[in-house]
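Lab notebook, bench 4. We co-purified these components, and the gel suggests they stay together. Before we commit to crystallization screens, I want a quick structural picture of the whole thing.
Request: model the full complex, all chains together.
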Amino acid sequence: METAGNVSNGAGPVYEQKEKTLRPEDLSEMLAAGTKQIHEKAENTQFVKDFLRGRIRKELFKLGAVALYYTYTALEEEIERNKDHPHFAPLYFPAELHRHEALARDLEYFYGPEWKSQTSCSKATQQYVDRIHQVGQEDPVLLVAHAYTRYMGDLSGGQVLKKVAQRALKLPPTGEGLEFYQFDAIHSAKAFKQLYRSRMNELELDMETKKRLVDEAVKAFLFNIEVFEELEEIGKTVQEDVLDAGMPVHGAMGGDISKCPYYNAKMAASGGTAYVRQLAMAALRHPTGQVLFATWFAALAGLVAWYLM
Ligand code: HEM
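Here is the predicted assembly.
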């Protein structure tokens, strides 16, 4: 059973639809399976790993928002162009999904009212933008792959990233600078993603086109990876202004760290020791951690002195 609340592109204000058993040849399943490997690669880029740990340089975060602004401006321009196209119309959800206006507000917050003259589209972002325009104008069915890659991703990891950024960059709890991550018109990301998947599966597409869509989604991930790698390179030249909030990310969210798929994946990969080391280092960077460590060390020294007496 699936509900998505009030949707702007649905058959009525609240609509429900019987849960269908998904088949491997459904587009949503083909996309999920076909991008699994490249998703892992995207998660494992240094920029994304650092972000997840709360090691974010504000300058880089701002440049990331600039890259997103140009990407979504292109994507949403092409979506508007193709909103009545039978291969895209069922996925047209401007009120729920569109991000470029939220990003413009974020950029105004970070760069001030003159943000447009102070920002520009980077090389890697431009290549991504060019491909989105090419697809929208020459092969609109492939736009589905670009919309899927960004919007489903934003609805999946977005809330975690928002909390990490808010804490690391000490941004106001009222959400300024992070509007991109806030989907006000979506009450349940899970239900909306189900709706989006079922809409993708209802598109009348032959197998060859579905395969082309998977290839295009892999390309879309690669464009994102290029942008992350470019940011990583820029980061090497930008002065270190890391506000390291690595340790308390999950605690701050009031959640159970063991339920985080990334934590589990990283723990499995590292055997746990890397994470423990990271936690210890993060603790030592915080004043409270330093005091606790000093107290613990003094107590241990006292115990050794007593034993040797
Ligand atoms: C910061 C690292 C990332 C995190 C924390 C993250 C988080 C997640 C999670 C938890 C899911 C599963 C959601 C579910 O089962 O409903 C997911 C799915 C997804 N992610 Fe990511 N992700 C990350 C990076 C990316 C990137 C860089 C992209 C592409 C630009 C992306 C695109 C997607 C897509 C398209 C899905 C939907 C898969 C599907 O159900 O078909 N993710 N992500």
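Residues 11-16, 242-289 have pLDDT under 50 and may be disordered. Worth comparing against the SEC data before the next meeting. Residues 31-32, 39, 42-43, 48, 52, 148-149, 152-153, 156-157, 160-161, 193, 221, 224, 261-262 surround protoporphyrin IX containing FE (CB under 6 Å).
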